[in-house]
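Following up on my earlier message about S-adenosylmethionine. Here are the inputs again, as you asked, copied directly from the submission form:
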Amino acid sequence: MLDRHLRGRDITDPEVLKVMGEVPREEFISQAYLSQAYCDGPVPIGMGQTISQPYIVALMSQELDVDGRCDVLEIGTGSGYQTAVLSKLARRVYTIERHHELSESAQAVLGRLGIGNVEFYIGDGSRGWPGERLFERIMVTAAVPVVPESLIDQLAEGGIMVAPEGPGGVQRLIALKKDKHKITERFICDVRFVKLLGEHGFEE
Ligand code: SAM
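Thanks, got it. Here's what our run produced:
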């Protein structure tokens, strides 16, 4: 997977490549789909959701430019695979999922893998992490119609957010940088994500 789907494309960050080689994707995939664990495609994880393809997980991690000083907010825990990858790059990961079944399963897998620097929250991630908190990095792993102000507000100065933005179907993956007086946006590539539902996402 590393050589064919990641190094063979544009994943060059050594830390991201190392972590992608360490996190066992098969742990996040049900028996029925195990043969697809290292194919470069999304795989169903229940509740009508999917675990993202390894290339996109690596690309979003690389674009987020995370290091061990960063607290990362992730919206859309899903299977917990991207969460596990982020946990090995960041100081701490705060992850929100609206389906308690998925969050609980992700918590169990990360527990089995001995990953202890992740906080889980079950609820509407389009509102951000409950309470007043700032994060150095934010990753949104479901498509937003437009990046919610609630998430921009929780991004620390100098922070980076990576999110798929646009209507259902094809979205633009963007990296948003928040500086003291301005927010700049950079287009990364076109992607296809399931929709982020909720108050500042798509309507259910
Ligand atoms: N990164 C995940 C992984 O590695 O398995 C895949 C994420 S999946 C593409 C998107 C997830 O976002 C789904 O689990 C979905 O239930 C969740 N989601 C959608 N709307 C949400 C919301 N408002 N708050 C929290 N999670 C949400």
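One observation from looking it over: The CA atoms of residues 135 and 155 lie 5 Å apart. Hope that helps, and feel free to reply on this thread.
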